[in-house]
Give the backbone structure.
Amino acid sequence: MKRLHIILLFFLVPLVLSAQRKQLLQAQEMIKTGTTLDKAESLMASLLRESKHRNNPKLWLTLYQAQRAQYEQANEKLYLKQKNDTSAFFRLTRKLFLTAESLDSVEQKRLSKPTAQPHSRQDNARYLSQIRSNLYYGGTFFTTRGKLSEALDMFDTYIDCHRQPLFSKLFKADSDTLLAAAAYWAMTASLQQADNDKALSYLPLARRDTTYLEQTLINAAQAYLNKNDTTQYVDILKEGFSAFPLSPYFFTRLVDHYEHTANDSLAMQLVDQALAADSLSSLFLLAKSSVLLNVGNYDECIAICKKLLATDEHQPDAHYNMGIALFNKAITKEKELMRHHVKSSQRRRAKREIAELFEASRPHIESYRRSFPANVLMWSGPLYTIYLNLNMGNEFEEIEKIRDEYRKNNKQSGPSGAQ
Protein backbone atom coordinates (compact mmCIF):
# COMPACT_ATOMS: atom_id res chain seq x y z
CA MET A 1 0.00 0.00 0.00
CA LYS A 2 2.85 2.37 0.83
CA ARG A 3 4.48 1.68 -2.52
CA LEU A 4 1.13 2.25 -4.29
CA HIS A 5 0.73 5.61 -2.50
CA ILE A 6 4.16 6.75 -3.69
CA ILE A 7 3.38 5.68 -7.25
CA LEU A 8 0.08 7.62 -7.19
CA LEU A 9 1.85 10.73 -5.95
CA PHE A 10 4.43 10.34 -8.69
CA PHE A 11 1.68 10.56 -11.30
CA LEU A 12 -0.53 13.13 -9.54
CA VAL A 13 2.09 15.83 -8.84
CA PRO A 14 2.75 16.54 -12.55
CA LEU A 15 -1.02 16.69 -13.12
CA VAL A 16 -1.43 19.26 -10.34
CA LEU A 17 1.47 21.31 -11.63
CA SER A 18 0.07 21.10 -15.13
CA ALA A 19 -3.35 22.35 -13.95
CA GLN A 20 -1.71 25.20 -12.10
CA ARG A 21 0.40 26.13 -15.11
CA LYS A 22 -2.66 25.96 -17.37
CA GLN A 23 -4.56 28.42 -15.14
CA LEU A 24 -1.52 30.67 -14.96
CA LEU A 25 -1.20 30.76 -18.75
CA GLN A 26 -4.93 31.37 -19.12
CA ALA A 27 -4.76 34.34 -16.77
CA GLN A 28 -1.69 35.78 -18.48
CA GLU A 29 -3.39 35.54 -21.87
CA MET A 30 -6.46 37.36 -20.52
CA ILE A 31 -4.23 40.12 -19.15
CA LYS A 32 -2.38 40.37 -22.45
CA THR A 33 -5.62 40.80 -24.42
CA GLY A 34 -7.24 42.99 -21.74
CA THR A 35 -10.40 40.86 -21.68
CA THR A 36 -12.16 39.08 -18.79
CA LEU A 37 -9.63 40.55 -16.39
CA ASP A 38 -11.90 39.79 -13.46
CA LYS A 39 -11.74 36.10 -14.41
CA ALA A 40 -7.95 36.26 -14.55
CA GLU A 41 -7.97 37.75 -11.07
CA SER A 42 -10.37 35.08 -9.86
CA LEU A 43 -8.17 32.26 -11.23
CA MET A 44 -5.09 33.53 -9.38
CA ALA A 45 -6.99 34.35 -6.20
CA SER A 46 -8.40 30.82 -6.18
CA LEU A 47 -4.93 29.28 -6.46
CA LEU A 48 -3.47 31.56 -3.79
CA ARG A 49 -6.16 30.56 -1.30
CA GLU A 50 -4.42 27.18 -1.13
CA SER A 51 -1.49 27.20 1.28
CA LYS A 52 0.76 25.23 -1.10
CA HIS A 53 0.65 28.07 -3.65
CA ARG A 54 0.98 31.10 -1.36
CA ASN A 55 4.74 31.39 -1.74
CA ASN A 56 4.69 31.28 -5.54
CA PRO A 57 5.76 34.75 -6.78
CA LYS A 58 4.50 34.06 -10.33
CA LEU A 59 0.93 33.72 -9.05
CA TRP A 60 1.16 36.89 -6.97
CA LEU A 61 2.67 38.77 -9.89
CA THR A 62 -0.06 37.62 -12.26
CA LEU A 63 -2.74 38.55 -9.73
CA TYR A 64 -1.15 41.99 -9.38
CA GLN A 65 -1.04 42.43 -13.16
CA ALA A 66 -4.72 41.45 -13.50
CA GLN A 67 -5.74 43.94 -10.81
CA ARG A 68 -3.54 46.69 -12.22
CA ALA A 69 -5.03 46.24 -15.70
CA GLN A 70 -8.54 46.50 -14.18
CA TYR A 71 -7.52 49.58 -12.23
CA GLU A 72 -6.19 51.31 -15.32
CA GLN A 73 -9.37 50.55 -17.25
CA ALA A 74 -11.51 51.92 -14.41
CA ASN A 75 -9.27 54.96 -14.01
CA GLU A 76 -9.60 55.73 -17.71
CA LYS A 77 -13.40 55.64 -17.39
CA LEU A 78 -13.20 58.12 -14.52
CA TYR A 79 -10.91 60.37 -16.52
CA LEU A 80 -13.28 60.30 -19.49
CA LYS A 81 -16.21 60.82 -17.10
CA GLN A 82 -17.83 57.61 -18.23
CA LYS A 83 -20.18 55.65 -16.01
CA ASN A 84 -18.19 53.77 -13.43
CA ASP A 85 -18.65 52.09 -10.04
CA THR A 86 -16.76 54.43 -7.71
CA SER A 87 -16.98 52.07 -4.73
CA ALA A 88 -15.56 49.19 -6.80
CA PHE A 89 -12.79 51.47 -8.06
CA PHE A 90 -11.63 52.31 -4.53
CA ARG A 91 -11.89 48.69 -3.41
CA LEU A 92 -9.78 47.66 -6.39
CA THR A 93 -7.19 50.29 -5.45
CA ARG A 94 -6.81 48.77 -2.01
CA LYS A 95 -6.60 45.21 -3.39
CA LEU A 96 -3.80 46.35 -5.69
CA PHE A 97 -1.77 47.62 -2.73
CA LEU A 98 -2.35 44.50 -0.64
CA THR A 99 -1.36 42.23 -3.53
CA ALA A 100 1.79 44.22 -4.30
CA GLU A 101 2.81 44.09 -0.63
CA SER A 102 2.27 40.30 -0.55
CA LEU A 103 4.26 39.88 -3.78
CA ASP A 104 7.08 41.96 -2.33
CA SER A 105 7.12 39.85 0.84
CA VAL A 106 7.17 36.54 -1.07
CA GLU A 107 9.97 37.73 -3.36
CA GLN A 108 11.99 39.00 -0.38
CA LYS A 109 11.84 35.56 1.26
CA ARG A 110 13.26 33.90 -1.84
CA LEU A 111 16.32 36.14 -2.05
CA SER A 112 19.63 34.63 -1.04
CA LYS A 113 20.90 37.87 0.51
CA PRO A 114 18.72 39.70 3.08
CA THR A 115 20.04 43.03 1.86
CA ALA A 116 18.96 42.39 -1.73
CA GLN A 117 15.72 43.86 -3.08
CA PRO A 118 12.96 42.02 -4.92
CA HIS A 119 13.28 42.72 -8.64
CA SER A 120 9.68 44.02 -8.95
CA ARG A 121 9.85 46.33 -5.91
CA GLN A 122 11.12 49.47 -7.59
CA ASP A 123 8.60 49.51 -10.45
CA ASN A 124 5.63 48.53 -8.27
CA ALA A 125 6.50 51.04 -5.56
CA ARG A 126 6.91 53.85 -8.06
CA TYR A 127 3.58 53.07 -9.73
CA LEU A 128 1.63 52.65 -6.49
CA SER A 129 3.08 55.77 -4.89
CA GLN A 130 1.50 57.78 -7.72
CA ILE A 131 -1.99 56.45 -6.94
CA ARG A 132 -1.69 56.08 -3.17
CA SER A 133 -3.77 59.20 -2.51
CA ASN A 134 -6.76 57.25 -3.88
CA LEU A 135 -6.63 55.17 -0.69
CA TYR A 136 -7.13 58.35 1.31
CA TYR A 137 -9.91 59.65 -0.92
CA GLY A 138 -11.49 56.22 -0.90
CA GLY A 139 -11.55 56.41 2.89
CA THR A 140 -13.28 59.78 2.87
CA PHE A 141 -15.66 58.52 0.17
CA PHE A 142 -16.81 55.58 2.29
CA THR A 143 -16.92 57.76 5.43
CA THR A 144 -19.40 60.18 3.86
CA ARG A 145 -21.57 57.23 2.90
CA GLY A 146 -21.55 55.71 6.36
CA LYS A 147 -19.51 52.66 5.32
CA LEU A 148 -17.16 53.02 8.26
CA SER A 149 -15.62 49.55 8.13
CA GLU A 150 -14.56 50.01 4.52
CA ALA A 151 -13.39 53.53 5.27
CA LEU A 152 -11.15 52.18 8.03
CA ASP A 153 -9.71 49.58 5.66
CA MET A 154 -8.78 52.31 3.19
CA PHE A 155 -7.20 54.57 5.81
CA ASP A 156 -5.35 51.70 7.47
CA THR A 157 -3.88 50.61 4.14
CA TYR A 158 -2.83 54.19 3.41
CA ILE A 159 -1.16 54.55 6.82
CA ASP A 160 0.42 51.09 6.73
CA CYS A 161 2.41 51.93 3.59
CA HIS A 162 5.00 53.57 5.86
CA ARG A 163 5.58 50.23 7.55
CA GLN A 164 5.90 48.26 4.32
CA PRO A 165 9.41 47.54 2.95
CA LEU A 166 7.92 47.96 -0.53
CA PHE A 167 7.81 51.75 -0.04
CA SER A 168 10.77 52.22 2.28
CA LYS A 169 12.87 54.22 -0.18
CA LEU A 170 10.13 56.33 -1.73
CA PHE A 171 8.64 58.52 0.98
CA LYS A 172 8.93 59.36 4.64
CA ALA A 173 6.20 60.03 7.18
CA ASP A 174 7.39 63.61 7.76
CA SER A 175 6.80 64.55 4.13
CA ASP A 176 3.43 62.81 3.76
CA THR A 177 0.89 65.63 3.81
CA LEU A 178 -2.14 63.32 4.08
CA LEU A 179 -0.84 60.89 6.69
CA ALA A 180 -2.02 62.73 9.81
CA ALA A 181 -5.36 63.54 8.17
CA ALA A 182 -5.83 59.85 7.34
CA ALA A 183 -5.18 59.02 11.00
CA TYR A 184 -7.75 61.63 12.07
CA TRP A 185 -10.44 60.18 9.79
CA ALA A 186 -9.57 56.64 10.89
CA MET A 187 -9.83 57.76 14.51
CA THR A 188 -13.23 59.32 13.84
CA ALA A 189 -14.54 56.21 12.09
CA SER A 190 -13.28 53.95 14.90
CA LEU A 191 -14.98 56.11 17.51
CA GLN A 192 -18.25 56.02 15.57
CA GLN A 193 -17.98 52.22 15.63
CA ALA A 194 -17.50 52.35 19.43
CA ASP A 195 -13.95 50.96 19.14
CA ASN A 196 -12.28 53.27 21.65
CA ASP A 197 -8.93 51.48 21.81
CA LYS A 198 -8.54 51.51 18.03
CA ALA A 199 -9.54 55.17 17.93
CA LEU A 200 -6.86 56.03 20.49
CA SER A 201 -4.23 54.05 18.58
CA TYR A 202 -4.38 56.74 15.87
CA LEU A 203 -3.96 59.63 18.34
CA PRO A 204 -0.15 60.09 18.15
CA LEU A 205 -0.30 60.35 14.37
CA ALA A 206 -3.58 62.27 14.14
CA ARG A 207 -2.47 65.03 16.50
CA ARG A 208 0.20 66.07 13.99
CA ASP A 209 -2.50 67.55 11.77
CA THR A 210 -3.20 71.12 12.88
CA THR A 211 -6.30 71.40 10.69
CA TYR A 212 -8.17 68.73 12.64
CA LEU A 213 -6.33 69.03 15.97
CA GLU A 214 -9.29 70.39 17.94
CA GLN A 215 -11.60 67.61 16.78
CA THR A 216 -8.83 65.04 17.26
CA LEU A 217 -8.54 66.03 20.93
CA ILE A 218 -12.34 65.98 21.24
CA ASN A 219 -12.33 62.44 19.81
CA ALA A 220 -9.62 61.40 22.25
CA ALA A 221 -11.51 62.89 25.21
CA GLN A 222 -14.67 61.05 24.18
CA ALA A 223 -12.78 57.76 23.80
CA TYR A 224 -11.21 58.10 27.28
CA LEU A 225 -14.58 59.03 28.72
CA ASN A 226 -16.14 55.94 27.13
CA LYS A 227 -13.37 53.85 28.74
CA ASN A 228 -13.99 55.51 32.13
CA ASP A 229 -10.35 56.61 32.16
CA THR A 230 -10.82 59.81 34.14
CA THR A 231 -7.12 60.66 34.43
CA GLN A 232 -6.48 60.58 30.67
CA TYR A 233 -9.85 62.24 30.01
CA VAL A 234 -9.00 65.23 32.20
CA ASP A 235 -5.46 65.45 30.79
CA ILE A 236 -6.83 65.64 27.24
CA LEU A 237 -9.36 68.28 28.29
CA LYS A 238 -6.53 70.34 29.78
CA GLU A 239 -4.49 69.99 26.62
CA GLY A 240 -7.50 70.92 24.52
CA PHE A 241 -8.30 73.97 26.62
CA SER A 242 -4.67 75.11 26.52
CA ALA A 243 -4.59 74.87 22.72
CA PHE A 244 -8.17 76.07 22.13
CA PRO A 245 -9.23 78.27 25.08
CA LEU A 246 -12.29 79.55 23.20
CA SER A 247 -13.61 76.07 22.44
CA PRO A 248 -16.68 75.41 24.61
CA TYR A 249 -16.09 71.63 24.55
CA PHE A 250 -12.96 71.52 26.71
CA PHE A 251 -13.92 74.41 28.96
CA THR A 252 -17.40 73.25 29.93
CA ARG A 253 -16.30 69.70 30.62
CA LEU A 254 -13.34 70.78 32.71
CA VAL A 255 -15.57 73.10 34.76
CA ASP A 256 -18.08 70.27 35.23
CA HIS A 257 -15.31 67.93 36.35
CA TYR A 258 -13.96 70.42 38.89
CA GLU A 259 -17.45 71.14 40.21
CA HIS A 260 -18.27 67.44 40.60
CA THR A 261 -14.98 66.88 42.42
CA ALA A 262 -15.52 70.00 44.56
CA ASN A 263 -12.29 71.54 43.34
CA ASP A 264 -13.39 75.17 43.36
CA SER A 265 -9.88 76.61 43.28
CA LEU A 266 -9.03 74.87 40.00
CA ALA A 267 -12.42 75.80 38.60
CA MET A 268 -11.75 79.46 39.44
CA GLN A 269 -8.31 79.32 37.81
CA LEU A 270 -9.87 77.84 34.71
CA VAL A 271 -12.60 80.47 34.32
CA ASP A 272 -10.10 83.25 34.92
CA GLN A 273 -7.85 81.84 32.18
CA ALA A 274 -10.85 81.60 29.87
CA LEU A 275 -11.92 85.18 30.60
CA ALA A 276 -8.38 86.34 29.92
CA ALA A 277 -8.86 84.93 26.41
CA ASP A 278 -12.35 86.45 26.01
CA SER A 279 -13.58 88.75 28.77
CA LEU A 280 -17.00 89.23 27.14
CA SER A 281 -17.89 85.56 26.65
CA SER A 282 -21.32 84.79 28.15
CA LEU A 283 -20.28 81.17 28.61
CA PHE A 284 -17.19 82.07 30.62
CA LEU A 285 -18.99 84.72 32.67
CA LEU A 286 -21.82 82.33 33.50
CA ALA A 287 -19.30 79.68 34.54
CA LYS A 288 -17.57 82.17 36.83
CA SER A 289 -20.90 83.10 38.41
CA SER A 290 -21.47 79.39 39.14
CA VAL A 291 -18.05 79.02 40.77
CA LEU A 292 -18.60 82.17 42.81
CA LEU A 293 -21.97 80.78 43.90
CA ASN A 294 -20.29 77.52 44.96
CA VAL A 295 -17.69 79.31 47.09
CA GLY A 296 -20.24 81.62 48.69
CA ASN A 297 -19.15 84.86 47.03
CA TYR A 298 -22.74 85.89 46.43
CA ASP A 299 -22.26 89.60 45.80
CA GLU A 300 -19.77 89.07 42.96
CA CYS A 301 -21.95 86.29 41.56
CA ILE A 302 -24.94 88.69 41.53
CA ALA A 303 -22.86 91.40 39.85
CA ILE A 304 -21.83 89.06 37.01
CA CYS A 305 -25.40 87.79 36.55
CA LYS A 306 -26.68 91.37 36.35
CA LYS A 307 -24.12 92.02 33.63
CA LEU A 308 -25.23 88.93 31.72
CA LEU A 309 -28.95 89.72 32.02
CA ALA A 310 -28.38 93.32 30.96
CA THR A 311 -27.02 91.94 27.69
CA ASP A 312 -29.68 89.26 27.29
CA GLU A 313 -32.46 88.80 29.82
CA HIS A 314 -33.41 85.40 28.39
CA GLN A 315 -30.64 83.43 30.10
CA PRO A 316 -32.23 80.87 32.44
CA ASP A 317 -28.97 79.82 34.10
CA ALA A 318 -28.01 83.42 34.83
CA HIS A 319 -31.47 83.95 36.37
CA TYR A 320 -31.02 80.80 38.44
CA ASN A 321 -27.54 81.70 39.72
CA MET A 322 -28.66 85.20 40.63
CA GLY A 323 -31.84 83.91 42.30
CA ILE A 324 -29.95 81.32 44.35
CA ALA A 325 -27.26 83.85 45.34
CA LEU A 326 -29.99 86.21 46.67
CA PHE A 327 -31.78 83.27 48.28
CA ASN A 328 -28.59 82.09 50.01
CA LYS A 329 -27.92 85.60 51.29
CA ALA A 330 -31.40 85.60 52.83
CA ILE A 331 -30.88 82.18 54.44
CA THR A 332 -27.47 83.25 55.79
CA LYS A 333 -28.94 86.39 57.36
CA GLU A 334 -31.80 84.36 58.81
CA LYS A 335 -29.39 81.92 60.45
CA GLU A 336 -27.30 84.76 61.85
CA LEU A 337 -30.43 86.35 63.29
CA MET A 338 -31.36 83.09 64.99
CA ARG A 339 -27.88 82.70 66.51
CA HIS A 340 -27.62 86.19 68.04
CA HIS A 341 -29.66 88.19 70.48
CA VAL A 342 -30.30 91.63 69.01
CA LYS A 343 -32.48 94.60 69.81
CA SER A 344 -36.06 94.65 68.55
CA SER A 345 -35.33 97.44 66.10
CA GLN A 346 -32.34 95.55 64.69
CA ARG A 347 -34.39 92.35 64.46
CA ARG A 348 -37.18 94.15 62.55
CA ARG A 349 -34.63 95.67 60.17
CA ALA A 350 -32.95 92.30 59.65
CA LYS A 351 -36.28 90.58 58.93
CA ARG A 352 -37.16 93.32 56.48
CA GLU A 353 -33.81 92.81 54.69
CA ILE A 354 -34.39 89.06 54.63
CA ALA A 355 -37.85 89.53 53.12
CA GLU A 356 -36.41 91.92 50.54
CA LEU A 357 -33.78 89.34 49.56
CA PHE A 358 -36.43 86.62 49.21
CA GLU A 359 -38.57 89.00 47.16
CA ALA A 360 -35.58 89.86 44.92
CA SER A 361 -34.79 86.17 44.49
CA ARG A 362 -38.35 85.13 43.61
CA PRO A 363 -38.68 86.43 39.99
CA HIS A 364 -35.36 84.90 39.00
CA ILE A 365 -36.21 81.43 40.33
CA GLU A 366 -39.67 81.69 38.78
CA SER A 367 -38.12 82.65 35.46
CA TYR A 368 -35.91 79.56 35.61
CA ARG A 369 -38.95 77.44 36.48
CA ARG A 370 -40.78 78.70 33.37
CA SER A 371 -37.77 77.81 31.23
CA PHE A 372 -37.21 74.36 32.77
CA PRO A 373 -40.44 73.15 34.39
CA ALA A 374 -39.16 69.57 34.50
CA ASN A 375 -36.22 70.50 36.76
CA VAL A 376 -38.40 70.27 39.85
CA LEU A 377 -35.52 69.61 42.23
CA MET A 378 -33.79 72.80 41.14
CA TRP A 379 -36.57 75.30 41.75
CA SER A 380 -39.18 73.73 44.04
CA GLY A 381 -37.12 73.88 47.25
CA PRO A 382 -36.14 77.56 46.98
CA LEU A 383 -39.65 78.63 45.90
CA TYR A 384 -41.19 76.63 48.76
CA THR A 385 -39.08 78.58 51.27
CA ILE A 386 -39.59 81.91 49.49
CA TYR A 387 -43.40 81.58 49.36
CA LEU A 388 -43.48 80.48 52.98
CA ASN A 389 -41.44 83.47 54.14
CA LEU A 390 -43.38 85.94 52.00
CA ASN A 391 -46.75 84.59 53.20
CA MET A 392 -47.80 83.73 49.62
CA GLY A 393 -50.45 81.16 50.58
CA ASN A 394 -51.77 80.11 47.16
CA GLU A 395 -48.30 79.83 45.63
CA PHE A 396 -47.04 77.95 48.69
CA GLU A 397 -49.88 75.40 48.50
CA GLU A 398 -49.19 74.86 44.79
CA ILE A 399 -45.49 74.22 45.42
CA GLU A 400 -46.29 71.93 48.34
CA LYS A 401 -48.51 69.80 46.08
CA ILE A 402 -45.86 69.71 43.37
CA ARG A 403 -43.21 68.60 45.87
CA ASP A 404 -45.50 65.90 47.33
CA GLU A 405 -46.36 64.63 43.85
CA TYR A 406 -42.72 64.61 42.86
CA ARG A 407 -41.70 62.67 45.98
CA LYS A 408 -44.51 60.19 45.36
CA ASN A 409 -43.53 59.61 41.73
CA ASN A 410 -39.86 59.50 42.53
CA LYS A 411 -40.45 56.85 45.17
CA GLN A 412 -42.51 54.75 42.74
CA SER A 413 -39.84 54.94 40.05
CA GLY A 414 -37.00 54.27 42.47
CA PRO A 415 -34.96 51.05 42.74
CA SER A 416 -37.67 49.12 44.54
CA GLY A 417 -40.48 50.23 42.27
CA ALA A 418 -38.67 50.50 38.94
CA GLN A 419 -40.50 49.00 36.00
